[in-house]
Every structure is written in C-alpha cells, then in structure tokens.
Amino acid sequence: MTSSKRKNKKGERVILHIDMDYFFAQIEERENPQFRGKPLVVGADPKKGKGRGVVSTSNYEAREYGIKSGMPISRSYKLCPDAIFLPVNMDLYKKVSERIFGTVKEFSSKIERISLDEAYLDLSKKVGSFKEAENIGKKIKEKIFEKENLTCSIGISKNKMMAKIACELAKPKGIRVITPEKVVGIISEMGVEVVPGIGPKTKDKLRKKLKKRDPKVRDAQIFSKEELINFFGKRGGEFYEKFRGKDSSPVKEEREVKTIGKEHTFQQDTKNPRKITSIFKQLIGDVYRQAKGRKVKGVTVTCRYEDFETHTKQTSFPAGEYDERFLIKKGTPLLLKFLTQSNKKVRLIGFRVTLYG
Ligand code: DCP
Ligand code: CA
Ligand code: CA
C-alpha cells in the first residue's frame, strides 16, 4: 500500500457535500439559453408587482439586485422589474434531480440526499486521502456538467457540518477541501450562524452574553460545555462540539423504498359506500398479512372513477410495525375523501403500504 493509500490515520472520516448552483434558475437557463446573462427569477407570477407568493430562487445576475429566495415576489419585481420571471416547473426539476443524483450515486452508494439539489457522500472507505476525495469531487462535477450541462459546488472535510461550510465557500462552480488540521482555524473566524441550529434567536442570546454585535465562533469558544448546556439545554452541548468544528452525525443512507399493495375492480361501477368500504377493508387485510413483520411508514389509497380518472392520496407516519386496525384508521379517511369529493361512481380502489427498510 502506498503512503497516499494509507487509511485516514486518526480514523477520521472523509465527507463530501454537493449542492447545485442556483438550481431551479440554472435549469431554466439551460432550457432557455436566450435568458443566459440576464436576471432571472423563478417563483410566483409577479403580476406587474401586484402578485402574491414568493421567489423560489434566482440566478446570480438577479441576486445582484438584492433578490433572494423566499422574498415576496412583489418585492423582487420592485428590485428588478426587467428581470425574466418564470413559474416553478417542479416536475422538470424533480426529473433533473433524479438523474443528477443517479450519476452521483455511481461514485458512492453511501449517499444521503438532503433536498432536490443537495447530498452528502461518505467517502471514508473509498479514499485514503483528502487529495483522492478532491479528485472524486472533480470527476463528479465533470460528469454532471457533461451529462446535464449544469454546474454544482462541492465541499469536502472531516464531517457533514464542515463539508457543507466548505461547499458554501466554494460557491458557485467551485470545489473546496478543508483538511482536518485547517478545520478549527477556518470555523473560528466565521460568524456563529454558520453552526447548524444557530438561528436568529440563538444568535441574539449569544450576542447579549458576549456583548458583541456580530459574534464569531472564536468568541463563543470561551464558554464551557456546562455553560452552554445551562444557556441552551441539550443543544448547548452540541454547540460546544460544533464551535470546535466537530460533528459526529452520520451520513444516513437511504434504503430502497418498497411497497406492497392490492387493487379491486368492481364488477359494476358503484357509489355504495358500504360496499366500497367493505371491499376496502378486505384489501387492507390482505395487504396487512403480506406486510406482516415489516415496518410500515405510509399508506396510499387509489381510486379510479367510472370515467377512468384515477387519483391517489397518501399519508405517512413514523415507521413501525402496526396492526390492521391502525392501517384501517389511516386509510379510511383517504377513501372517504374520494367518495365525498366527487359524484362519480367508483370503478376501482387500491390500498398500498410503503415499507421501511
Ligand atoms: N428553493 C425554494 N425556496 C427557498 C429556497 C430554495 O423554492 N426559499 C428551491 C429553489 C432552489 C433550490 O430550492 O433552486 C435549491 O435551494 P438552494 O438554497 O440550494 O439555492 P440555489 O440552488 O437556488 O442557489 P445556490 O447557488 O445559492 O445554492
Ligand atoms: Ca443550491
Ligand atoms: Ca441546496
């Protein structure tokens, strides 16, 4: 084994964080190249400044006018009336996201997706050095650009928190490695709000305690663990670690989602609620017996009306081994909505559970 292959000496992890650049807006630019270079806002319809709803995101040109995600769309219109405003095309963004992370998965199956445009990878077992991790990061960026013509940013460090911070520093289009020996030096100089869990309220408390307008992580390091627990409860203990660049939270791999379901087509279309619910309970019973011993985390009910219009409704709950009565309790209200929301007769009903693990 060459020296570069030697496994992380101190048993340190190698975590990679990937986040797509101005995601929804970048996809729109790709689909409409004539918009490139112009301020572009994706979100609600501004209706000449009178529209309601918010900005989903915007490209970097629009951000120069002060436009930000989550801001009222009317305000973004005031800031830049000449921007191009586009509606949210979520189906498209979801498809693009699926393809992107399908590609990312080829580099490591130890992946935790955080949102449509963001994921963590645990490369600890794959690489022997941060240099090697950086090369994987570069390959991921190239592959995504080649396949999707989209740019992303990548951060690499010894835990999830520091990898995300590295990614923020790399944005846009960049890649940044924070090696373990650099971690404390870098986080110490940042504002306390870089620590996950420190929002405006917590920051305000720290401001008062430290008598500083813009406290840095370095300032917050003067508190002992006990003091922080006194101020903030259990979270305080976590802040103590995070102020030192430590974060032991694991990359949680997704398991394959599996479902078990059954459908029933009525011999004659019907509106009779007694008949429908009685069949429905039989379906649940059948599905329950098939799923027995497995953890269930959601149920889906399907209804096809006489004109073949088909709808599904679903509900989810904490994964667990539930009894048949529980499934009936969760499924029946969904079925009843189908029966009350339309006057049409029902042709088919279905019941499906989503399994965990
Ligand atoms: N999004 C949204 N509403 C928000 C924040 C985000 O609809 N308040 C959507 C649109 C974004 C996507 O989620 O494109 C990803 O969010 P990010 O926070 O990662 O922001 P961007 O990818 O748009 O920009 P950046 O380049 O800063 O990551
Ligand atoms: Ca992003
Ligand atoms: Ca993101």
Question: What report would you give on this structure?
Answer:
- The protein is α+β, with helices and mostly antiparallel strands.
- It is 40% helix and 23% strand.
- The chain is built from 13 helices and twelve strands.
- The chain has helices spanning 23-31, 60-63, 73-79, 90-105, 130-148, 160-170, 180-188, 200-210, 217-220, 225-232, 234-242, 273-291, 324-341, and strands at residues 15-20, 40-43, 55-58, 84-86, 111-115, 118-122, 152-157, 175-177, 258-270, 295-305, 310-320, 346-356.
- Strands 5-6-1-7-8 form a five-stranded mixed β-sheet. Strands 9-12-10-11 form a four-stranded antiparallel β-sheet, covered by helices on one side.
- Strand 5 and strand 6 form a beta hairpin.
- The radius of gyration is 25 Å and the shape is globular.
- The two termini are 36 Å apart.
- 31% of the residues are buried.
- Mean pLDDT is 94; it is low at 1-7.
